[in-house]
Design brief:
Number of helices: 1
Shape: globular
Helix content: under 10%
Distance between the termini: 28 Å
Largest sheet: 4 strands, antiparallel
Radius of gyration: 18 Å
Length: about 300
């Protein structure tokens, strides 16, 4: 049950009206983000092949790095960054699945290495695992891959039907998408199946069979609140909240414009940062925005 998978909720948090902190031209596809120790936030712009940064000091966003491939997820490492990426965009046709890779960047955003992922088909969400290793979701291959940063080897960590795309869904939607870890539990969203699942990690770092937490409907990336709520982007107008009792409600019903990612940021983790696409996948031509939602 959800109450077992996620701790009890702190009920006092209230979402207030979101603030637009950055805006990009129509056609921009903002995809994923990570907060740095400085309080700055880096985020990916998929079609532009850039890493953007929202500076805590100035409160403004600027381009931090230009890449050779289309960036999906980004994680800050001790001395740089790792990025899951596609050599060709997913809109270019079926051949794009053959161009999966991981990019290594130094602390200044310079691309220092590209690690090919020949067996992968759609690299997506990233999460830290054991020391020196990462996990990356594959939205087509029904697989979570383990990446050894020292050897630069990529091997299957877990294959399971729960990670796959739903064959009953005719339009393309990613399978395993966002990854988050809390202690010895990994959480994974599946956009095609509309699910959030949990995976127990044993003392050797291996993962067990995915267990369904909830059927949440449209879902992309998500964030785990300290109190136990799960906040998830829907790739539509709404930002939603899953309570430990299984109830789901809108934090924002309109205005998220194809939101792809959400994260708690700030020193006290009392605010949400949301990436949107301007409704690009829905055929709309609106600006892509970064939204901030304070909690009180």
């Amino acid at each position: 049950s959800l109450s077992v998978a996620v701790p009890a909720t702190a009920q006092q948090n209230v979402i207030v009206k979101p603030e637009v902190v950055a805006e990009y031209p129509a056609g921009t596809f903002l995809e994923n983000l990570d907060e740095l120790g400085s309080g700055d936030v880096v985020f990916t712009s998929y079609f532009a092949k850039t890493i953007e940064i929202l500076e805590r000091r100035t409160g403004k966003a600027r381009t931090f790095a230009r890449l050779s491939s289309h960036p999906v997820a980004i994680l800050a490492l001790g001395d740089g960054f790792i990025v899951s990426a596609h050599g060709q965009p997913f809109t270019s046709g079926p051949k794009f699945v053959e161009t999966q890779r991981l990019l290594i960047l130094d602390k200044n955003g310079n691309e220092t290495a590209s690690i090919p992922a020949a067996e992968a088909r759609f690299l997506n969400g990233l999460v830290r695992h054991r020391k020196g290793t990462l996990l990356v979701a594959d939205s087509i291959a029904a697989t979570i891959w383990e990446v050894d940063l020292a050897t630069r080897k990529i091997v299957p960590w877990l294959k399971d039907e729960a990670l796959s795309q739903d064959p009953a869904v005719k339009e393309f939607k990613p399978g395993a998408n966002g990854l988050k870890r809390r202690g010895a539990t990994l959480y994974v969203s599946n956009s095609s199946r509309g699910t959030l699942s949990s995976i127990k990690i044993d003392s050797s770092g291996r993962g067990g069979k995915p267990q369904l937490v909830a059927k949440v409907g449209p879902v992309d990336d998500f964030a785990l609140a300290e109190g136990g709520d799960v906040i998830f982007a829907t790739h539509s107008d709404a930002l939603r909240r899953l309570r430990p009792d299984g109830s789901i409600s809108d934090l924002i019903s309109k205005g998220c414009d194809g939101c792809t990612a959400v994260a708690f940021t700030g020193g006290s983790k009392r605010q949400l940062l949301v990436l949107t696409t301007g409704g690009l996948a829905e055929g709309r031509k609106e600006p892509a925005r970064v939204l901030r939602l304070p909690l009180r």
